[in-house]
Write a sequence for this structure.
């Protein structure tokens, strides 16, 4: 998911998506520790998506304060 796609979503949608991605990251870490994960890059991709979501949420918060 690109940042442009995230800009179109509301704060509520982003918060829900953030929770889902954090849960997915947790599951990926468990699989990685158990050597069940074949695509190790998914952990990095998920972390980046979480960071993008958090950045967009921060932007929304700053816009509302201004």
């Amino acid at each position: 998911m690109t940042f442009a796609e995230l800009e179109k979503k509301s704060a509520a949608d982003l918060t829900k998506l953030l929770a889902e991605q954090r849960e997915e990251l947790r599951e990926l870490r468990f699989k990685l520790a158990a050597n069940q994960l074949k695509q190790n890059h998914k952990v990095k991709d998920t972390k980046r998506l979480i960071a993008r979501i958090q950045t967009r949420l921060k932007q929304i918060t700053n816009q509302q304060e201004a």
